[in-house]
Structures are given as structure tokens and as C-alpha cells.
């Protein structure tokens, strides 16, 4: 073969080598052999060197051996230096060298390779390429790839801007709808995303979304790359939804993720990430709308993601934090401490996976700091506050200026510092917080959610400093920042109410300091706007309403009564949101919103101050005993409705029963999330979380019930069905005798006497009534805890308590009843509020009289208690059994033990009095909760003789102790529906006791539960009882019940019979606490 032939051959074989596969090793050997036959300076040697380099490059692509790519780059460079006397081939060789350098950089990271490739690509882009068979488009695309690579390692904004410019040009030269077009558009979208990551400019994110959308719409539905594009577009939409408040972004992201999820196999590893992102989008949407179903979806998906995560996965910390964040949001919205504790545990586990130097350590530190801070708000433990601040400061040290998380960390730390200031009064905390917030405000672009939160907190801190220093600039700046932060909030955002309310509170403080009436008026306007904002959570609106009542009342503003009405309405709505009674109890107890605990009494006191006695009564009825009244509404009598529209009545009943089943869900099921698995780090990652299911089902049923109620209200004569009870109806509670309502409020306390045939009578109380009663309740409770039954110390404190109650309540009420012409020995009902409900008002005394006989209040009148007027009305309604005026059928539940030796003789004595043919006794092994519940509907009367168990702080777990230490709980009793029940005698300890740490206005004790389940009259005990009193009291009680008397239902004699029995105990000379202990509830 001659040299000319070799030249021709090399050209043709070179082109073949670019297009087809060949035996690389053989080709390398062949060309190297040929080169060895040529003189060093032979003009064809450059071509052969080029071909050898191409062979090495082909072999590198197959083996990834670095020696081959080094040989290739060296060969191309040598060929260019030798020169091939063929300009097109020189250009082609130069292009091969450029691509090879970029490839070596991508694989081995040598920065000089990258810089050289960029320089060479730029040169190629500026020369004619057609003769070399090189497409200008490919060169521009290669330059863009190289510049993108340099941006990744160096972060130079100019590089990514050049990439965008190049790809914009390239895409105009690419036919739309082709795979090349989609590839370029995808790269362009990626470039805009990278630019956004550095600049944070919303315009960059908008461009990213626009290009990904263009790519997605161009893909056929079955294209294999469409799922990847779905993921990219969903990711950036989710990202933008975090930066702003456009609900469409989060809606679209959720739709795309769900579509992608439907396309993936269950075993696809990508499924874990899609689920994670979908969960995050649900959480973001919850933050924007406040819809709790989104939060529950987020929690469920995050739990599923953790179950899919393989052991030791590098992103495990991130997944733990995601779930922790959602659980903490649930705590913030439903007050569930178990969720907060689990969230803290998850963040601690994540932090263990993020040692110093880990890129996500700041995120885990910040999440843990926030969770511990929330716990300190609930528990008020200073160690939690200090831990939160220490974690925040550590986090700040890890995020120097320029770190993207620094503004959020500065804000979170300032929040913790503000709270610590409110506890300690240390202005250093506020000064540090202000410094951090000013720095953060300069780092965050105006208009972003974090920006307005920073300004809002800065305003609050400046108000604190103004109160301390009195500098006019601080208050002026605070008001300016408040107004700016509120103006930046979208109208439909759920945080509007809380922001307006905070502003209103500080305007009120400013008014008190400056006397500027404009600040007061703006405070009232802001409060009203906060309360009426329809997109904010009911909880936030309730807090705003309560703050409005404080502002209006403390300044004697005319809007006070309106504020109280709004607050009470929102209180009922807030409680109804909880799926179970335990959740609802969280609200009422003030564990979540402490100021609302006395709201109904404060509202009533203001109405009384305004002489609106009837409205005051309605307010107390609307705001007290909410748990019982809420459940009682589900048992609304429907006799008349059945006659008018049977199907509608049946539909109401069916939905109500299903709803009640959820509301009365047991404490354990509601609050304990049982772990079903742990990960390799020992963290519980799967839980049987019934709360989400119950919440969703409760929401569905509530919606259906609301619809049924609206249809019922459209019927003639049913317009007021299920509406707040007006006073004219409440007044019927006094048909059997006056009802004495004693309202206890920090503002003022009053006594109202409701009679059936004339207007409410008002009795004012001393100015120190509230303080004296609060002290009495505390002293009596503490003494009872510290001393055993019949101790002299307790007897002395109880006697002093009764004497003071006589002065405060007993004597004034007795005097007024006498003035009203209510004769002695008449029946009256006591309806005390707040801690008064825990005091033995019925035994107040001695009451002075014209004789020297020592009499207690219950000697003058036959006293009963009622939790509310509607409860008393309900106790007189419904169908009566045949025993209402004849011989009763009595169920005796007894569980004697060595501490209750008198139970057997007690129950035998009762059996003799009532008649064995009318008595069913459940004792010993038969005395199980299930058996008792089964027998209750069969007997209108029941007598319990066993231990009563009190659970302070957990009222739904109060119970009767039965066989094998099983418990018949308050909640289980309340779930019973006994429309023909009449009388329950609870000869057990604590059955009508209200603890100081409880919620007295909810009257959550066993006696009230029996009354709610259907018993018209119930006898209970205010504290522990002496065993022998059970027999004595029962004998006298049942003997009196069966003596001839007035023609009334036999159970209505129970209050008189109880008084008779306690008087017999007194005649025996028993201690004061033993006879005072017994109380009567109901008709």
C-alpha cells in the first residue's frame, strides 16, 4: 500500500470509526504499526496520530480506563501541533480534543480541563464549521454543558447566565416537538433553576416552570421521559409554593405528584421520593389553607416514606425531619402532646444522623429547637426554653452570612428569646432578638412569607423595648413594621387573623402608655377584622376574639358585648372541631388557649354589668358544660319530627349515633399511636394512627349532619331546631323551683335567681368574692389531699369553708328567697360556676335565723345541683318507666373487699327495703363493666356500692372499680343511652368530686355522666366516703323513698330522701365531712 493510499484509507477509516463499532485494540495496534513505519516528520503522521487518539477515545468509552482518555487527549493535541494540511480535519480534531477535555473533567474533575474546554468551545463557536461536518448547534450545546459544569464547581453567576443565553439561541434552531427540542428545553429549565438557587429571584423560578411546562406538554403520554419531566415540574411548583402564597402552585404540584405516583410500580425506588414530595406539598397546602385533612395526608404519606426507606439511607435524617415537622403542626392545631413528643424524638434521631459538618445539621438543629420551644410554651419549663435558645445559637454559628438558612435561624432564635423575656423580664433577650431580626430583614427579599414574619416579630420586640425605654422611635417603627407585614399578607391566608390580633394587642398596650385614642380605635378595628377573617383558623379567630374582649372591656369600649358574643360562638366552633371529647377537653381546660378557660363567666359578668340578665344566662348556658351539651345535642328528642318527617328524623338519628361513637372514642385509642415497626436506629417509624381516620370520619359526618339540620330547619315549626336555646325556654328549668346561678369571674361575681314566673333576680356580691372563693376552693382541696378521712384539721377547714360560704352565698340567697316568697323546705337547684362547683354550697352555714337553732342551707331548702339549665330540663323530659309512681326495678352493683366490709350488709338491707322480687344484684365475678352496661337499660334504678376512682387531670378515666380491678369509666357510662332511667345512687368515693386541676365548668364526674346517660336523679359524693355510711344512708334513703308523699314521680322524692338520710347521719353525731359529702343532681 502506497502513502497516498494510506492517506485515503486513513480518511475513510477515520469516518467509519466515528460511526460504527470496530475492534478497538486491533485498530490501535494497526495504526501504531503503521506509524512506526513512517519517519517522525512524515506529513501523514498527524492523521495517523488522530486516528490512534480516536481509537483510545472509543476504548475509554467502553472501559473508562483513565489511561485511554489521557492517550486520546495527548494524541489529538499532537495531531494539531503537527498539522494535517487539511483545515476541515484540523477543525474536527480540535472539536474532538474539546469534547475529550470536557469528558475528562466530568469523570475526574480536573479544573484546567474544564477551563480549556470552555475556551476551545468558544473558539469553535466563532469559526465556520460546515466544511468539517460539525453542526454549530452541537458546539453551542457543548459550550453550554461546559459552562454549566463550571457553574456547578465555582458558582459563578456569569457562567449560568451564559448557559441560559446559549440554550435560548440553540432552542430557536431546534425543530419543536422533537426529542432534541425537549432535551434543550429541559436543559434550559434546569439552568434557570440553578440560577434561582443562587439568586432567589422569583422571575428565575417562573422561567424554570415555564420551560418545564413546555417540555411536558410536548411529550406524548406514553413517552418514557415524561415521568421525569413530571417530577421536575412538580418539584419547582412545590418550591415556588413555599416562597409565595399562590394556591394554584401547590394544587398543581399535588396533582402532578399524584399522577407520577400512579405511573410508578410499588417496587420502584423513585416512589419513595415522590411520596415524600407529595407529603411536603400537602403540608404546604395545609399551611396556606388551614385544612386539616391535608395535614393528615401529609403525616400518613411521611410515615409510608419512612417504611420504604432502606436501612442506612443517606437521606434518612431528612425523612425523619419531614414527619417530625408534620406531627408538630398537628400538635399546634389539635394540642396533642403525644405528637409533639414524637416530633421531638424524630428530630433528635435526625440530629444524631447529622454530625458536625453534615450539610443538613442546621436543618435538624433548627427543627429540634422549634419543637422544644413549643414544648416550653405548653409546660413552661425553663430548661426547655434554655435548650431551644442554645440550639438556636449553635445553629447560628454553623450558618455564616450568606448561608441560605441564616434568616430563618435568626427568626427562630428571636422567637425563643422573646418568650424567655416574657418569663424573666431580661431586656437583654429583647435586644439580642431585635439585632437578629434587623439582620434577617436585610437578608430576605421583601414579600416572601418569612419577610413578613420577621417584620411582625420585629414590631412586637420594638413594642417591648418601647415599654421599657419609652423611645418614640421604637413605637413608630413598630407600628410601621406591623402595617407593612400585614399589607404583605394575601387576603385569603390563614395567618391573617393572628397577625391582626397581635397588632391589636400591641396597639392596646400603646394606648395605655400614650393615651392616644387613635391607637385604641385601630386596635378594635384590627381585632374585629381578625375575628371576622373567614380564611383563618377558628382557633386563631377565637384567640383574637378573646383579646378583643379584654381590650374593649378594659377601655369600656362599646364593642365589648359584641366581642363576647363572637368569642362564645367561636368557642363552640373550636371545640366542635376536635374529633373526640378528649380533644375538646384540651380546649376547654385551657391547655391550648389558657385565656379562654373563664370566657363564659367573664362574658356573663359583663352582660350582668350591663343589666342584661337574660343574655348573661344564655351566655353561661352557651359556654359551660360544653362537652355534655355537645353530646346531648346529638340525642335531641325527635318525637314531633318523627310525626312530621320520619325519614328525616331517622337520618338525623343515624348520623348522630355514628358521630357520637367517634366523639366518645376512648382515651387510649385517641391518644396512643401504637408503633408497628422500628427502623435500624430504633426509631418508631410506623404507627397505627387512628386520629387521622377519626378526624376525617368526624368531618364527613359533621358535614352530613349540618345538611340534615338545615333541611329540618326548613320545615314549618322547626325553624329553631338545634339553635342556641333562648332564655324563654331555659326559664322552664325553674318550673320545679328556683335555680340559683352563681357566676364567678375575675371582673365581678354575681348571683342570679331564675324563677319560672317572674324576671331574673340579681344579687350582687362583695368585691373580693372571686379571691375569697378561689382561696376557699384551694384550701379545701389541699387539706383534703394532705389529711385522711375524719381528720381534725380537715374538719376545721371544712367548717371555716362552710361559714364563709354562708356569708358569701347561703345567707344572701336565703334572704332573697324569703323576700320572693319562696317558703322554707322548697326545692331549689344550685348551678355554681368555675371553682365554686367544687365547694359544698348546699351545706353553707350556719345560716342565721330568728331562732337559735343551728341550721345549714340544706336544712332550710331541699337542695339539688345541676350542671346547666338545659341539663335540668333534659332530666325531666323523655319517657318514664312504669316505676315512676310505683315499685321500681333496681339494679345493685356491688364489689366488696377488705376495705369495704360493709358493702354486703348495705346491699342486703336495700334488697329488704325494695323487695327481692324487684332487685337484681351483680356482684363478684359477674360485676364486670360489660355486664353492668348490659343490665343498666333493664332497670330504671341502680345502686353502686364499690370503690370510686378519681383521675386528676384525666376526668374521662374516672371510674367504678369492679371485678379483677376492671374499670367502668366515665366515658363508657356516658356512651350509654338510657331513656327510661330514673334514679342512680352512687355509694362510692369521689363520684361527684371536681379536682382543682380539672375543668369545673364541664362538671366531668361520674354523677354527671350518669345524669347524661339518662338518669333523672343521681346521688353522688364530693370526696371519699366512710364505708359504714353506705349502709346507714341507704337504709334511711330508701325507707323515705317508699313512704307516702306528694303525687309526684317517685324519683323526684330522691332529693328530699337524701336530705332526710343525711339528717339521720348527723343525728348519730358523725363528723361534718361525712354528711356534707352527699349531693343530689337532677330532677
Strand order across the largest sheet = 9-8-10-14-15-16
| Overall shape | elongated
Q: Which spans of ≥5 residues are poorly predicted at pLDDT below 50? A: 1-21, 667-676
From the helix content, strand content and strand pairing, which structural class follows?
alpha/beta
Helix count, per DSSP?
Answer: 46
Task: Write down how many β-strands occur, each being a DSSP E stretch of 2 or more residues.
Answer: 16
Range of strand content: 5-15%
Cα separation of the termini? 124 Å
- Radius of gyration, in Å, reads 40 Å
**Major sheet:** 6 strands, mixed
**How helical, in percent, are the residues?**
55-70%
Average of the residue pLDDT scores? 87
Molecular structure report:
This protein is α/β, with parallel strands linked by helices and 1083 residues long. Helix content is 63%, strand content 7%. It has 46 helices and 16 strands. Strands 9-8-10-14-15-16 form a 6-stranded mixed β-sheet, sandwiched between helices. The protein has a 5-stranded mixed β-sheet with strand order 5-4-3-6-7, with helices on both faces. Strand 14, helix 43 and strand 15 form a beta-alpha-beta unit. It starts with a helix and ends with a strand. Mean pLDDT is 87; it is low at 1-21 and 667-676.
List keywords for this structure.
1083 residues; alpha/beta; six-stranded mixed β-sheet; five-stranded mixed β-sheet; 46 helices; 63% helix; elongated; disordered N terminus
Task: Briefly characterize the structure.
Helices cover 63% and strands 7% of the residues. It contains 46 helices and 16 strands.
